[in-house]
TrEMBL record, chains A, D:
It comes from Lacticaseibacillus chiayiensis. CDD domains: ABC_Pro_Gly_Betaine. It is an enzyme of class 7 (translocase). Pfam families: ABC_tran, CBS. Keywords: Amino-acid transport, ATP-binding, CBS domain, Cell inner membrane, Cell membrane, Membrane, Nucleotide-binding, Transport. One of its GO terms (cellular component) is plasma membrane. It comes from the Bacteria. The complex is probably composed of two ATP-binding proteins, two transmembrane proteins and a solute-binding protein. This is Quaternary amine transport ATP-binding protein. SMART domains: AAA, CBS. GO terms for molecular function: ABC-type quaternary ammonium compound transporting activity; ATP binding; ATP hydrolysis activity. Residues 37-273 form the ABC transporter domain. One of its GO terms (biological process) is amino acid transport.
From TrEMBL, chains C, E:
One of its GO terms (cellular component) is ATP-binding cassette (ABC) transporter complex. This is Glycine/betaine ABC transporter. It comes from Lacticaseibacillus chiayiensis. The chain crosses the membrane at residues 20-39, 51-68, 74-94, 101-124, 144-170, 223-243, 255-275. It is found in: Cell membrane; Membrane. Residues 97-276 form the ABC transmembrane type-1 domain. CDD domains: TM_PBP2.
């Protein structure tokens, strides 16, 4: 399968034809892959397991790139090839344009220290170190002086809500706490790229949301690039700039959350996103419909009346020449104005229109929309009217009907 | 170590070898005697000491010293190959601490006379000379298998063997007999010769080499039937004292063994234990 | 084919070896240096032990024990140490005990200093492992008697060849257990170290050795025990100490006396064992 | 905190005053607990960690009982005390009325074999056994003959989608696959009670949904009792009959999903359930509003007209005396019927009313509701009308407004 | 206080021990049974080895190796075995080798049969562990020389006391490593066993021993090596075999001859080592 490779100045990680086959008869397996055999067929024939099959993708600086897929589809393997914890069978990984496979020991070590931090699926904490020492591990490896690294590690522990546990040992902690130690260890490192393998899987909803916010902050403030494996669709949609979906070692689709949701590449992806909570993903812009408007600076009551009749509606939005929202017109008022022979709309415009911004998540709108019978007007930062929100469209979007994309 | 200088006849010996006599197993009779000698000759007061080690370590040290013509004083005894292989001489023992000579006794277990009278008789008759034993020792030392060397000896000395077996009738049914011995070359020789003779008489003989203590203990506890390697009165004095009530001493099988302090012959000025004090 | 083989004359291996040993004597300079080196360690230990009064020695041992075991039960061990050491004193074996201790500590020290790196190296390289394993088998099973005698030519008689023989015999458990311990480090911990950019050295020091500690300590402990088990053999080439006492008693056919001297060795063994084991338990 | 303990014939597990304190100075810690000190205070003062603090709850036969809470709040500890993997510091656990703390070794072993199966948070697979042998482990312990247990284990592996991997070793599997092996091991055992500690945490959405369905089937068909720790609110709400929420070792609330959603016990629970996707939880019954009806067997057009006027509505639902839905009346038709002097409603009833069942999840209704402007009628199995669904109410429910409970 | 202590006369320990040994002789019936038991194992092994032609023996060893190492590299080892055994044959040590093998296999068998349960027991009970540890120290460090002489009274001379001494000296690593291995089993695996209702026995057999296998095998391997290291000492009370050859050569100050006999022991050690280690690697 071919995926577009965007190559521009902002590219942080570029992956080309990355392949990993586990087991013994690797050459034979590679041959079979080329001939289009599937992973189970190859496993049966050679005993070799296809971990990742010729993956191509690009991750930009400062984005959160989420990898999803069935268990065993090659997510961890892909991630671990990014820092060469697993030696690829074939293909390239370029970080900032450098092919890490071609690096000597020293360079790859430097890259691992400064550019790449990792959170492990299985935590991988050192059992004979305290929580604090575990969190400071990456810094210690970098040779940072003890006081400094411990104060940094302490801050990282604060970040993940584990202050007070610094002197305990991993086996005295609950699963989720252990996971957060692993998280703190990665965060303390302050690397440019964070590789996170199901880093939040053992967290409760509250901690999870906090950690997600933390990631978003990191991305925004520090411009970190984050590669994140998750099984939680809502999480992926919430934090991901791009989402990559894998199946049996292959990439099935890469796209923005909206693209994935509204244009799933195939049945697999469609099934995959079935249970998703769309209210967390979609914004007002996604569900708004075109508003019928009149220009207060040019149009008069007669035009307004005709437009209402043509569109079989009883109200009309009023904008000015800059398309700024002015208010709303009532059919009765328009009729009265015409009867009174008025030429201007100004007197009859009602300005108490409920408005919302383009990027307000649907979840935040639900309450308002459910209690207000007037449609909400969707405006941008300069108060220009872009559309309106009606209940049917909201429900439709939540039900998975098509929505506006790239608005 | 090997960095030490060669023997200098013109200087006192003591400083040259650090006032040390190289000994063998700490518990051996010769060691007890040497300890006594150090006192009797007043050597102990002059910082002389006895370094215990083992027979092998002592002979090894000796070999090395002789190769480098360095001075050395060791505890020595004969018959032993060290006296055939190396140019050694015993130091005179005017105060007779080591005794004139040693004798080698045959010791059997209690009840052997009743159980195996024929074997008992052979063992009782067994007697030979340092010269005879040396021929077997030499053969073994030159690489011959001890059993074969013994067979050769028995073949060549048929007359003497006939004396040992005088009045002894052939036994039937291959009764078992166990001899134990100390793995010194003299004892290897004598035990193999006796075993060969006993085999001719019809016994199924097992011989087992071991340390002196188990040799005595085995005969005392009847785990073995006999041994022909009891150096007395000095060398095995302690063991003899311990076990004499549990074993039967058949008397001397060889005379003329000797123990004492020995030095290489090139140490011309050292001829008596008294000379060590110089 | 086998009949054919039987006609091959016995290989003159023994002769070759004798020549090899003779050839080795030309390196007497090197052996001299080694002898002096080991000798100076021995002397240093012995000087310290000779300096410390007996009561202070006992107090120091007990204090060390208490310090190492402070979060565990230690009363039984303290009482054992007190009684055991007093017994050794009472039996008149004090000096012998310190001599044996010197021998064992020197040998263990060398076994650890050589053995741990060797074990690490073997854990890291299959080639090294393929060489080290049979070498360890060799060192443990080639009877000490065999090399002790030629060793006299190189190291003389006394403590030094005793130490050499003890090191040869006692080192293998440390090497093997170090290798085993490092092999047993879970893959994900190694990966964590690598992912954070650890050098091989850091990975070793910060992850593998701490994790393998228990197993390595078991190896060191075994090495110490084996070094102690060598003291009688060491005494055969003149190393002084409790071994000599045993050897002497055995020579005199004095089972009781031998046992008493042996008991002093055992007491020393138990104290050393407990102290090394409690080194292990503090995390 | 006091929680109601329902004691009836159906009770499977009853827990009373269950407490666990980790560490050394336990008596002191217990004292402090009694005096109302908090977990952090006790940790600071004694070094002892309060795992669970006097928990009381009851689990009924055949229900799925979900435990949720912050990481470190004592969920795993509670679960592990149910099969006495952790010895309680105080309190009782009664299984089928028997106090497991008082049992001798043989009895507790029997209970563990026959009544309790467990899925571990950290998988706990035996590394030197194949996947199949791991799955058969519980049965092997019971002494089951090899062929039989392996065929059972094979079936369990099928169930979790791991056929084909039977002969691999755990370290050759991905995280999610390992978790499913642990799942298969527990399922193969066919025990009455399943204790599942974050058993689905490493699963992708598709496998996860399959496994949830599997659990629901098990519960329904085999009447298994399932105690399930989860961090996924949607999962908890989807499969849980009751949900227990813990915090710092204490139970904060126990209730049905609807109760938890609509009547959170405190701010903590409210925050906890903030991000939940209500469309998966709520059913038509939860969001329907009362329908204005007329009885076709008794009422005439005039009554219908008045009722419309009174309620300011333009349509009215028609039922018969059994409250069975007959159809809908239009205001215009009613007016026409009155004008025509008709006494009967039969001719003017429109019967093409969109209907839905009481227990249809909102998620399944969204699509229909968004495209149909007529409200849906909610009927039960005997076609009786219970209410209608209007868009505003749907949106309101999704937004977290109060809904009907226990309908 | 210490001065006071110095006035206590030396304890008559040696005397007590002599009396104890004397007292023990009344149990000669028991020791007779034990001697016969061990003797029959020895005889069985030796009978088999005497029966098998040399070429078949070599073929069998190589076949076993191939079978155990079939998924690994085995060529080097096979060649080593072939050449090593042919060398032993060529040197005329075949019978001695089988005698030593008999001694070592019997001792190892006993060490394993006694040591593994003891190690397990020690891992499970702190009390047992507190008793077993010093006992192991005792067994490893009480010099064999000390008990070999009295042992003659109980076990006679020859193979049997050799086996007894070897077992005493060689067992501790098996016990210790078994205990260590079981201690190192991760808590969650034990919990899994318990949660599924395993009896202690099942937990041991199905979880702990398989997991600890590597460590236990290392212990067994060490025990075998130590048993091999005892053959010379065993020969001092009449156990036949390669040890006797070494003993003789050393007595003759024949370094080369001793080394050659020692080499035969080492070859045997390497083969045994490799075979036990490959037992370990099949999962
Ligand atoms: N073996 C132990 N020793 C000491 N403290 C422990 C131990 N096990 C758990 N704890 C403590 O008990 C508390 C509850 O732990 P528990 O494992 O039950 O949490 P949990 O609710 O399962 O969390 P998670 O969701 O992260 O798995 C935590 O504070 C933890 O630190
Ligand atoms: N060390 C290994 N040896 C053999 N096969 C392996 C190994 N590691 C992974 N695999 C195989 O590679 C495939 C991909 O595994 P990977 O761990 O990348 O999956 P994943 O997508 O991360 O799954 P999960 O969501 O369950 O963690 C799986 O089929 C797995 O069995
Ligand atoms: Mg994974
Ligand atoms: Mg938990």
């Amino acid at each position: 399968m071919q995926h577009k490779i965007e190559s521009d100045a902002e590219t942080k990680i570029e992956v080309r034809g990355l392949t990993k086959i586990f087991g013994k008869r690797i050459n034979r397996a590679k041959e079979m892959l080329k001939n289009g055999k599937t992973k189970p067929e190859i496993l049966k024939a050679t005993g070799a397991t296809v971990g990742v099959d010729r993956a191509d993708f690009t991750i930009k600086t400062g984005e959160i790139f989420v990898i999803m897929g069935l268990s065993g589809s090659g997510k961890s393997t892909t991630l671990r090839m990014l820092n060469r914890l697993i030696e690829p069978t074939a293909g390239q990984v370029l970080i900032d344009g450098d092919d890490i496979a071609k690096m000597d020991k020293q360079s790859i070590r430097d890259i691992r220290r400064k550019k790449l931090s990792m959170v492990f699926q299985g935590f991988a904490l050192l059992p004979n170190r305290t929580v604090l020492q575990n969190a400071a591990f990456g810094l210690e490896i970098q040779g940072m002086e003890k006081n400094l690294r411990e104060s940094k590690a302490d801050k990282a522990l604060d970040l993940v809500g584990l202050n007070g546990f610094a002197d305990q040992y991993p086996d005295q902690l609950s699963g989720g706490m252990q996971q957060r130690v692993g998280l703190a260890r990665a965060l303390a490192n302050d690397a440019e790229i964070l590789l996170m393998d199901e880093a939040f899987s053992a967290l409760d909803p509250l901690n999870r949301r906090d950690m997600q916010d933390e990631l978003l902050d990191l991305q925004e403030d520090m411009h970190k690039t984050i590669v994140f494996i998750s099984h939680d669709l809502n999480e992926a949609l919430r934090i991901g700039d791009h989402i990559m979906i894998m199946k049996d070692g292959e990439i099935v689709q890469i796209g923005t959350p909206e693209e994935i949701l509204s244009q799933p590449a195939d049945d697999y992806v469609e099934k995959f996103i079935e249970g998703v909570d769309r209210s967390q993903v979609y914004t007002a812009a996604n569900v708004m419909i075109r508003a019928n408007t009149v220009n207060i600076d040019k149009d008069g009551p007669r035009l307004a009346a005709r437009r209402m009749r043509d569109n079989e509606i009883s109200s009309l939005y009023v904008v000015n020449t800059q398309r700024k929202l002015v208010g709303i017109l009532d059919a009765d008022d328009v009729r009265a104005a015409i009867d009174a022979g008025k030429k201007d709309l100004k007197d009859i415009v009602k300005t108490d229109v409920p408005t919302t911004k383009m990027d307000t998540p649907l979840a935040d709108l639900l309450d308002a929309v459910s209690t207000t019978s007037v449609p909400y007007a969707v405006i941008d930062d300069r108060d220009r009217l872009h559309g309106i929100i009606i209940r049917g469209a909201v429900l439709g979007a939540l039900a998975g009907q098509e929505v506006n994309v790239n608005v | 170590s090997s960095t030490q200088p060669k023997y200098n006849a013109n200087k006192p010996l003591g400083p040259q070898i650090n006032y040390t006599i190289t000994g063998i197993d700490a518990g051996a009779g010769i060691m007890t005697s040497t300890d006594k000698a150090l006192k009797v000759y007043g050597l102990a007061d002059k910082n002389w000491q006895l370094q215990p080690s083992s027979t092998a370590a002592m002979t090894s040290t000796l070999k090395k010293a002789i190769a480098d013509k360095r001075p050395i004083v060791v505890t020595g005894w004969t018959p032993h190959w060290m006296f055939t292989k190396f140019p050694l001489k015993f130091l005179k023992d005017p105060k007779n601490v080591y005794g004139k000579t040693e004798q080698i006794h045959t010791i059997v277990r209690k009840g052997l006379k009743q159980d195996d009278p024929q074997a008992y008789q052979v063992l009782d008759h067994f007697h030979w000379t340092p010269k005879e034993i040396s021929s077997v020792m030499l053969a073994v030392n030159n690489g011959q298998d001890p059993a074969n060397a013994a067979k050769d000896f028995v073949k060549k000395h048929a007359k003497q063997v006939a004396e040992w077996t005088k009045g002894v009738s052939h036994v039937s049914g291959h009764p078992k007999l166990t001899l134990t011995y100390i793995a010194w070359d003299s004892e290897i020789a004598s035990t193999n010769v006796v075993a060969t003779v006993l085999r001719q008489v019809g016994y199924k003989v097992t011989i087992r080499a071991m340390e002196p203590q188990p040799v005595w203990a085995s005969v005392a506890t009847k785990a073995a039937d006999a041994q022909v390697s009891a150096w007395l009165p000095k060398t095995a004095a302690k063991l003899y004292a311990d076990y004499k009530n549990q074993v039967v001493d058949l008397g001397v099988n060889m005379d003329g063994a000797r123990v004492g302090l020995a030095v290489p012959k090139y140490m011309k000025n050292i001829n008596s234990i008294e000379d060590l004090k110089k | 084919m086998f009949n054919l083989f039987m006609n091959i004359p016995t290989l003159p291996l023994a002769h070759w070896i004798d020549s090899f040993v003779a050839w080795l004597t030309q390196f007497s300079g090197f052996f001299g240096v080694l002898t002096n080196f080991i000798g100076s360690i021995v002397n240093a230990f012995q000087a310290v032990f000779d300096l410390i009064p007996i009561w202070l020695f006992i107090v120091l041992i007990m204090a060390l024990t208490w310090y190492l075991k402070r979060d565990q039960k230690y009363r039984g061990l303290l009482i054992f140490e007190l009684l055991g050491l007093l017994l050794i004193w009472n039996l008149g074996f004090w000096r012998d005990m310190t001599q044996t201790l010197t021998l064992v500590l020197t040998a263990s020290l060398l076994a650890i200093v050589i053995g741990i790196p060797l074990g690490i190296w073997a854990a890291e390289s299959k080639t090294v492992s393929a060489i080290v394993k049979p070498l360890m088998d060799f060192m443990q099973t080639m009877p000490a008697f065999v090399y002790l005698i030629p060793a006299v030519a190189f190291f003389g008689i006394g403590m030094v060849p005793g130490v050499v023989a003890s090191v040869i015999f006692a080192m293998p458990p440390t090497v093997r257990m170090t290798q085993l311990g490092i092999d047993q480090v879970p893959a994900d911990l190694n990966e964590a170290a690598i992912a954070f950019g650890a050098t091989s050295w850091q990975q070793l020091i910060k992850v593998q050795l701490p994790f393998a500690r228990g197993t390595i300590m078991a190896g060191i402990n075994q090495s110490m025990m084996l070094a102690l088990s060598m003291v009688v053999i060491a005494s055969m080439i003149g190393a002084m100490g409790l071994g000599t006492k045993v050897y002497f008693a055995v020579g005199r056919n004095d089972a009781g006396g031998g046992f008493v001297a042996g008991l002093a060795i055992v007491i020393l063994a138990i104290i050393l064992d407990r102290i090394t084991q409690s080194l292990n338990r503090t995390r």
